[in-house]
Amino acid sequence: MISVEEALRRILERAPRLPAETVGLGAARGRVLREDVFADRDLPPFHRSAVDGYAVRAACLAGGGRLRVVDQIPAGTMPKVRLGPGEAAAIMTGAPLPEGADAAIMVEDTVRDGDFVVWPAPGRTPPAVEPGNRVTARGAEVLRGAKLLEAGVRVSPAAVGLLATVGKVRVEVARRPRIAVFSTGDELRHPRTARPRPAEIRDANSHLIAARCRALGLPVRRLGFAADDPDHLAATVASGLVADVLFISGGVSMGRYDYVEPVLERAGVRLLVTAVAIRPGKPFVFGITGDAPPVLVFGLPGNPVSALTTFEVFARPALDAMQGVADARPPRPSVRLLAPVRGSGPRRAFLPARVGVAEDGTLTARPIRSQGSGDIAAVALANALVIVPEDTEAIPAGASVEAQPLPGFPDAGAGWHDPRR
Amino acid sequence: MISVEEALRRILERAPRLPAETVGLGAARGRVLREDVFADRDLPPFHRSAVDGYAVRAACLAGGGRLRVVDQIPAGTMPKVRLGPGEAAAIMTGAPLPEGADAAIMVEDTVRDGDFVVWPAPGRTPPAVEPGNRVTARGAEVLRGAKLLEAGVRVSPAAVGLLATVGKVRVEVARRPRIAVFSTGDELRHPRTARPRPAEIRDANSHLIAARCRALGLPVRRLGFAADDPDHLAATVASGLVADVLFISGGVSMGRYDYVEPVLERAGVRLLVTAVAIRPGKPFVFGITGDAPPVLVFGLPGNPVSALTTFEVFARPALDAMQGVADARPPRPSVRLLAPVRGSGPRRAFLPARVGVAEDGTLTARPIRSQGSGDIAAVALANALVIVPEDTEAIPAGASVEAQPLPGFPDAGAGWHDPRR
């Protein structure tokens, strides 16, 4: 058995960095940048009024004043009139200051009197007007040529807005890994099977893993499930190896392993990880094809909790690394246990839990009652995996442990209840 | 001015609960359940071997034993042979135990000797075999009829697996709110404009808000941008009101408000929120049409930071509530400040920040250097908004504050650096 860290090291060492591709602005969200993004102009590109009101010379309003309004400045055009002493221009939020002006005053602080504006309005006591008052100077936010985003970051929705602002309507991002997934097992039936026979169960894992990959924004081909038959398995493996990453669920525990291994070997897959000190998930295996770049093959355990756990711990960092994410380690914030948990001897344990926010703002974790690695009802309720280190007998309620976030992390409150009770 | 809480209360009070619709398994992820989900059978549906090895009667192995192997049990079929005393059946992980058996033993702990299996293997000292050993009893994980998922929860990837397991291939979920979004302003140009004139800026907000809604899984129609012209604005508003929620960015500060208000009024929109004690975001407005159910209209400020902030604080909870999410409040975990922040007098302040995980597991927040509410470069780097309460002058580094997560929350480490420096 090797440690979780050693297994992850071997996997990340082999994860190929996928090439870049160019996408349009509408497809950039969630993708990983493969180029730095720079400002093509100063932002704001002009001295910008931060208020609706009047552009003025601050010096003309020392102790109050009455200014002639000589222009009205709409957004979108540069003012043509230069302000002289004793003059003002009506201006809107976001519009450019005219030459000669060095400040803006708020319309609420003024009274209009025909062609003149009076500041301050009777009964108002605004602070003195200084040069720069209510104005964002040209380039104050961003100077032309400045680096704004770096290769290796995932494009947030606000970053889409930034790309739009600097005119970056085509952007270099990592190609996304193409995923193929199937389950194995003679006992499996399609979920639409209304009445499985007593020894049959419906296939969950290919749907679970496909949904997880789609939540990560990745294109997935679901190949359904393969029977415990070498020819059928070989054909399914072959069709899966056209992807960048193949997930096979089940068929990797000892009894079946004997016949999955030769099938993978004949398909040119070399196994680099075969026994990890993790619970659940010990039957996890990882291999690569001889192609350049290699196809990554993850043999996930047939138990759904094990499948999800090994996906999160081993596959998700690899999928990020393939896209060039600068730091592919998953975050592992501390959470306070609301109930005790037990360890798994020499194996690192990952336990489904519901993480929320207590009244005092701390993250709390309620371990989800689980009947073991087959209990998909438990993991379906989880928004985190609580980590119990190797060789830890038990951790009491109230203690802090690391947790790896899942979708839905964290809840707003700490009052989550288990619908099964 | 009204408080953030009061504004949110008014908005949630008017957010209509959208009807349910039925979707297939492949479309269920991320949707909000509108029905409870129950188990249609026991899980596991049979006494299930947890190991590859042999099904046995525990009593026959007291102190070790040699058993005749009378059957081999593949997954997917019920065993036909009943075990008698002194007998065993080869069995694979996940296969049903035969009648007469009450435990399973691991193949690693045995030696095969022709038709017989010997336990323990020489040199192995496994624990004594008790009834139930390495077996998951029928119904141990889930009893038929048990409630597994409740209406009001968002379907996680693992929950997709659970739906598959219980044969729930068509499921009732909330219809998603249909979104329309446009920006206003004569100064706006399309992002593809290679060289905007000095007074022009590229439209960021309609792209930012559309990307944010898509990240929430919502269908968005982007209507581009409207000029500062009542007829053009009226036509754009009219086409936006066929959606469930309309976002208008810009045109809601005092100078322009005078002409946006009559356009909205003529379109039948009644404003219920017009001045909130929030920074950035004071020009935010909210209204509803007279339809039943009403269309929600969010007038977001034209500044991108203000637009994102008011979206997160006011619109996101409303979008969740429309789908019937049980608790639409956003989570607000405590984070430790890595630098001091300043408040905004009587207004609640939301500051873009990068939240990561320190060595000791605590969440840390690095406030992002920002030149104010127009600084889209700052908010593009944020994965959280740090909250400074009303009437708070300043909060020192090292203190804990609440933060509202954004996409990408949290980073794995605390070592984030600003690419602009």
Poorly predicted runs of 5 or more residues of chain A: none
- Strand content range of chain A: 25-35%
Query: What's the mean pLDDT score of chain A?
Result: 94
Q: How is the biggest beta sheet of chain A arranged?
A: 6 strands, mixed
- Count of alpha/pi helices of chain A: 7
End-to-end Cα distance of chain A, whole Å, is 37 Å
Structural class of chain A: alpha/beta
Radius of gyration of chain A: 31 Å
Oligomer: homodimer
Measured as a percent range, the helix fraction of chain A is: 10-25%
What is the strand tally of chain A?
28
Please state how the strands of the largest beta sheet of chain A are arranged side by side.
7-4-6-5-9-8
Largest interface (CB < 8 Å): A-B, 127 and 124 residues
**Overall geometry of chain A:** elongated
Can you describe what's shown?
Two copies of one chain form a homodimer. Chain A has seven helices and 28 strands. By secondary structure, the first copy, chain A, is an alpha/beta fold. In chain A, strand 20 and strand 21 (296-300) form a beta hairpin. In chain A, helix 1 crosses helix 6 and helix 4 (230-240) crosses helix 5 (254-266). Chains A and B meet through strand 11, helix 2, strand 15, helix 3 and helix 5 of A and strand 11, helix 2, strand 15, helix 3 and helix 5 of B.
